[in-house]
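Task 17 of the worksheet. Students: predict the tertiary structure of the chain below and write it out as structure tokens. Keep your answer in the requested format; marks are given for formatting as well as content.
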Amino acid sequence: MKKQSIERCYREAKERYAALGVSTDQVLRNLKKVPVSMHCWQGDDVGGFESMDTTLGGGLAVTGNYPGKARTPPSCAATSKWLSL
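Model answer:
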């Protein structure tokens, strides 16, 4: 989705919430105060940073071998929007 489209949709949603008495600006300010904990699978959804030369253990089982898959945590971080939130 293009930035202009996202901004237009947000403006429309903001107007709809304002009609209900909700200030989205205030909601976003409040949300900035809420700590967020990311589950271990959310940064590398579909696949993990598994080692191909090991067997599954008692932890998480991950799969995935799609083109462009992040192979390391820094690779995932370089393309992850959630880190900037």
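Marker's comment: The radius of gyration is 19 Å. The mean pLDDT is 75.
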